[in-house]
From TrEMBL:
It holds the Pfam family ADH_zinc_N. Homodimer. Its EC number is 1.1.1.1. SUPFAM superfamilies: GroES-like, NAD(P)-binding Rossmann-fold domains. It is an enzyme of class 1 (oxidoreductase). This is alcohol dehydrogenase.
Length: 394
């Protein structure tokens, strides 16, 4: 970035534009805001581009806590370090970074363990504040507090993120591809790779072929799965899914007098080795569990259901069938070590990121991106903060 600009802004508040959610479900409004300097262990970054994830839609609609307004949404992004707070050693001005909603402090017993990616020093929560401090770095020109989202808030030209939630990456990767690894694609690929540890030659069933489900298919393909069965109510998802390794398709609305699990058990001769629930419906979790093979089948939950939803499984089945059910937050990935691996696999032309980007547009059109995603017309829409580098597609 421009060194003269950095020297002028370091340690000082920055005035910039942000797309602010003032009322749940209503179009975001562009406002001039103030972004405070970073506190110790924090980094202020200039967002290059951000992509829209369905979690943004979910919280944009939410009227009750943890929904809150005014708020700056957005959490899939890539940016450049503008300035750093005290005690930040990992990055410096001008570095390219990817923020993540999941912390990776590298110090706690969980971050040092290979068994989990869930940081215990900064456990995941949907907080309106910064990671270490119960306050915000955003305010209006009049001093009104604006809340954070997942401690990232990338729908702003500048934002402040804790160093535990930033991964330094090679600046040569195209930013409109790197930002996808900030959440959705990493979550799906990681669920197959890290959480399930899909084995070569195995059979996989994926419930829900949105971006996350397709990313699971991509991960399963990379792991060498032989059969990757997609389950959805939209038959057009099959053709899309073939790009990411889907080999077969089950239309959940055309199973006649059979359940989806009955169909999958029949066509696989006893169930899939791995099942992934990517929608966020308790009933679908139960169906996925019923679709995996007795003795060793694993069901991985990725979909986000509404608060308070419960899954009901018969204790007899749990005891006698020997299956596994587990959740996967951020695909089981440790951001600081695993995101660079995924970037290398993309640069080596192994990981297919390009097909996930169906639309690109300027910051001014962010509400159009919401409409496209809600209408099921896109996988990932990349929003460029600087329209001068925006290659608009549709």
């Amino acid at each position: 970035m421009d060194e003269k600009l950095t020297s002028k802004t370091e340690g000082k508040p920055i005035r910039c534009r942000a797309a602010v959610c003032r009322n749940p479900g209503e179009p975001l409004g562009f406002e001039e805001i103030i972004v405070a300097p970073p506190m110790p262990h924090e980094v202020r970054i200039r967002i290059i581009c951000t992509s829209l994830c369905y979690s943004d839609i979910t919280f944009w609609k939410m009227k009750d806590p943890p929904g809150i307004v005014p708020r700056i949404l957005g959490h899939e992004a890539i940016g450049v370090v503008e300035s750093v707070g005290d005690d930040v050693l990992e990055v410096t001005q001008g570095d390219t970074v990817v923020p993540t909603f999941l912390a990776n402090c590298g110090e706690c017993v969980d971050c040092r363990s290979k068994r989990t990616n869930l940081c215990s020093k900064f456990p995941f929560k949907v907080s309106p504040w910064m990671t270490r401090y119960e306050n915000s770095r955003f305010s209006t020109l009049e001093g009104e507090v604006i809340y954070h989202f997942l401690s990232v808030s990338s729908f702003s030209e500048y934002t402040v993120v804790d160093i535990a939630q930033l991964t330094k990456i090679d600046s040569t990767i195209p930013p409109d591809r790197a930002c996808l690894l900030s959440c959705g694609v990493s979550t799906g690929v990681g669920a197959a790779w890290r959480t399930a540890n899909v084995e070569e030659g195995s059979t996989v069933a994926i419930f829900g072929l949105g971006s996350i489900g397709l990313a699971v298919a991509e991960g399963a393909r990379l792991c060498g799965a032989t059969r990757i069965i997609g389950v959805d109510v939209n038959p057009s998802k099959y053709e899309i899914g073939k790009k990411f390794g889907i080999t077969e398709f089950v239309n959940a609305e055309e199973c006649k007098n059979k359940s989806v699990s009955q169909v999958i058990n029949e066509i696989t001769g006893g169930g899939a080795d791995y099942c992934f629930e990517c929608v966020g419906m308790a009933s679908l979790v139960e169906e996925a569990y019923a679709s995996c093979r007795k003795g060793w089948g694993k069901t991985i939950l990725l979909g986000v259901d509404k608060p308070g939803s419960k899954v009901s499984l018969a204790s007899f089945d749990i005891l006698h069938y020997g299956k596994t059910l587990r959740g996967s937050l951020f695909g089981g990935l440790k951001p600081k070590s695993d995101i660079p691996v995924l970037i290398k696999r993309y640069m080596d032309k192994e990981l297919h990121l390009d097909d996930f980007v169906t639309h690109e547009m300027g910051f001014e059109d962010i509400n159009k991106a919401f409409d496209l995603l809600i209408g099921g017309q896109c996988l990932r829409c990349v929003i460029w903060m600087d329209e001068r580098v925006c290659h608009v597609t549709s």
